Amino acid sequence: MTAERREGYDGTGEGAITPDGCAVEVWSRLPVGDAPDVIEAAVPPGARILELGCGVGRMTHPLTERGFTLTAVDESAEMLARVRADVRTVCGPIEELDLGERFDVVVLASFLVHAGDPAVRRGLLETCRRHVSEDGCVLVQREGENWHRDVPRERSIGPGAWSRLVSATPVGDGVNSVHCEYVFPDGTWTQTFLSRPLSTDAFERALAEADLVVERYLTADRTWVRARPVL
Predict the structure, then answer these.
(1) Rounded-to-integer distance, Cα 21 and Cα 189, Å
(2) pLDDT digits 0-9 by tens, 188-203
(3) From CA 165, how far away is CA 195, in angstroms rounded?
């Protein structure tokens, strides 16, 4: 059964497509890159981590293998079906999540903080704040500074496979409609989604609205951020 799409979001290709246009098969194939290394270096060993928007477990599995205890959240049951059975999973919209517990670390990756709808972004960050312990931290992955301007571009994602950011088209109110293609030897998938570019100042203001503050930027390109709750 095809999940109902969010307005402004779409995807094509074989297999399940999530409400925000992600193809489950594509996310099962994409390389995870250095994200687990960045996270491991920024948090205490063996920390309890709440991963918001875990998808198929691309980061979940390597972090679990490194000794962290993960609770993995996603709104797509089809995505969560690819997460290992020994990982605790929760299915539902992130912005509505309230588990009634707190974690050493909350991770909000995959550029989710750039949600086109400011109300959704506020909900995501409030979920982070609601679930992080007073002495814990929130790790957020941002888009690069030129992410919307350096278009079109592509990168290799495996033998004979490419990820292409085809266009980022303004649709009003500071939001772009972003169109991506994922080309593999056995098929092509697309995703269209809404993304709101955020300057560093705008990003930090958004954190402040949720009673979070930047502790430090973790990578030279400032795409990974460690924030802490305002007490």
Answers:
(1) 10
(2) 999 999 999 999 999 9
(3) 13
Element (H, E) at 86: none
Q: What is the model's pLDDT at position 223?
A: 97
- CB burial of residue 113 (10 Å; 0-12, 13-18, 19+): buried
Strand partners, 165: 153, 180
User: Which residue, among 68, 214, 224, has the nearest Cα to 141 in the 3D structure?
Assistant: 224
Helical (H) or strand (E) element with 55: none
Report the chain's C-alpha Rg in angstroms.
Answer: 17
> For residue 11, how many other CB atoms are within 10 A of its CB?
24
In sequence order, which residues have a C-beta less than 8 Å from that of residue 162 and are 6 or more positions away?
A: 154, 155, 156, 181, 182, 183
Q: Are 195 and 142 in contact (CB under 8 A)?
A: no
Place of tokens 């992080």: 132
| pLDDT at 1 > cutoff 80 | no
DSSP structure string for 88-154: EEEES-GGG---S--EEEEEE-TTGGGBSSHHHHHHHHHHHHHHEEEEEEEEEE---TTTTTS-SEE
Closest CA to 109 of 11, 177, 163, 39: 39
Name the token pair of 105.
Answer: 């670390």
- Taken in order of first residue, the domains within the chain and their CATH numbers are 1-23+145-197 (no CATH), 31-142+198-229 (3.40.50.150)
DSSP state of 13: S
